[in-house]
Amino acid sequence: MDFKGFLKKKDIEISLKRYGVDALGAMAQGLFCSLLMGTILDTIGKQFHIGWLTTEVATIAEKSYTVGGLASAMSGPAMALAIGYALKCPPLVLFSMVTVGFAANALGGAGGPLAVLFVAIIAAEFGKAVSKETKVDILVTPLVTIVVGVLMSALIAPPIGSAAMWLGNLIMWATEQQPFIMGILVSVLVGIFLTLPISSAAICAALALTGLAGGAAVAGCCAQMVGFAVISFRENKWGGLVSQGIGTSMLQMGNIIKNPRIWIAPILASAVTGPVATCIFKMQMNGAPVSSGMGTCGLVGPIGVYTGWVNDIEAGTRAAITGFDWLGMVLICFVLPAVLSLVFNSILRRMGWVKDGDMKLEG
Q: pLDDT tens-digit profile of 279-327?
């Protein structure tokens, strides 16, 4: 059997889709089920004074954890398991990814999610390569997966994490210096990433994108989701409004391929809401970085902004949540994306670039 045949037998597919779409998207789901859910649980517990969510339920290595804290602490293993699942790892490889994810996330520092992505892919593929190749598979497969994962974590996780942090800090610094220009760029690009079959949430998490740049990212994602939900209402009615507005605008990718011009209205809307967020309302996303790339999916983006307000109050950098803050969130996340997308789309319809049925969702 030649090398290509061996890779095919092991279902090892070295491709942009497998690693840049499937693995990256799964990583975001792992983050959602750990760090993001932990953050939401902590925020709910504090704001509504729910005892069992604010009580410390475990103490490990002299550090105390709430229920949400435990969920957040498992972000590394959760990401690695999700990546292993996306790469179709056999059971022994998949279960070994828990250790790999923990090591990569811990050694990657604040840029841990990006480190987990690279390390988990390498460890998973090595584990798959040796899986069921020996009579002592139950020993060899976990051993190879864990050793490769921990070794690669020690070698490449720190520099990858540092590089991700550097790039994220550069984007956030640039947004502070040039809020108008960067507000447009960040909003438009992250919004586009959200609709493409890649994960904007994972990208924002990997870059630890928060602050003013995080606010622009939230604006761009909301513009895509709310924009498509509203402008396609005549074709998809209430089901489409919900599935796109609080689900994902990625549902329109098939239609975008058929007629790319339907994408113009939400993109233009994001080009407006981004600088409105950064220059007028100075909306920041100081919750979990993954929230920056979620938009209105499950209302995670707005919840992340609110969580950031609460964190800022606790840190003493914000006195209180003002009516102006709430006005900015409602306008940027919901009202402006809907109104602007409708206006831009009506112009495109008059030009004949967009027609009835162009945004019809299957099913």
A: 999 999 998 898 999 899 888 899 999 999 998 998 898 999 999 999 9
SS3 319: coil
pTM: 0.82
Rounded CA separation 79/209 (Å): 18
Distance between start and end Cα atoms, the chain: 43
Following DSSP, what letter does each residue of 119-167 receive, concatenated? HHHHHHHHHHHHTTSSTTHHHHHHHHHHHHHHHHHHHHHHHHHHHHHHH
**Rounded CA separation 27/314 (Å):** 30
Token pair of 262 as six digits: 């339907």
Asked if residues 53 and 45 have their Cβ atoms less than 8 Å apart, the reply is yes
Query: Which residue, among 82, 89, 85, 2, has the nearest Cα to 34 in the 3D structure?
Result: 82
| pLDDT per residue as tens digits for the range 193-250 | 999 877 788 899 889 899 999 999 999 999 999 999 999 999 999 998 999 998 889 8
Instruction: Kindly list the domain boundaries of the chain, sorted by start residue.
Output: 3-158, 178-350
Neighbours of 136 (CB within 10 A): 8
Q: What does the alpha-carbon distance between residue 162 and residue 277 come to, in Å, rounded to a whole number? A: 28
d(CA 209, CA 170): 10
| Cα distance between residue 153 and residue 138, in whole Å | 23
- Residue 90 φ/ψ, nearest 5 degrees: -65, 165
